[in-house]
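Troubleshooting: if your tokenizer reports a length mismatch, compare your output against this known-good record of 191 residues.
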Amino acid sequence: MLTEHPNLQDLWERLYRDVRHRGLSHADAEDHAQNAFLALLKRTNLAAWEARARSPEHALNRLYLLSRRVLTDTYRKQRAEKRLPMQNQPDPLSNRPAPPSPDEALVLKERQQTALQCLRRLREEMIQRGQGHAYRLLSPHLHEDSQQASIVEIARELGLQPGSVRVLLYRMRQRLRTLESLALSHELHHS
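Known-good structure output:
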């Protein structure tokens, strides 16, 4: 019978090692492994497992896989219970970032306003140089890498070579960075 099998102790040890590898202390690992082992014994008819198994080792391996699932379920339930009082905390499994604090939101809003002012200033400078149409076509590409096809289309519309359009876009990005740096240094000096 499997319950009398000497390798059943191996199953317990494998469970314990599995829990210890999750970073728990000795006492916590014993508790988790014991809970998983008890749940496994409650869920499973060991005699039926042994009857379906090709050998006692095969039965132990199958029991070990089932016990790992039980252990994972137990571990997740305990972690969920610990999280309940902290419902306002962000879910670590969620891809959404935590909402910003009021101070962070204010800083973010100020940065966005500064960025918009810099874009307006760049547009005005380009209009003064007679490049308003180029600004309108290239401004969507200021914060991203442009695809070769879009550069060729813009070059065709502006009557320029694609290389000249890339240079113009590079200079626009450089000027925007300069404007943003100046705005930030101005804010630092006046705050």
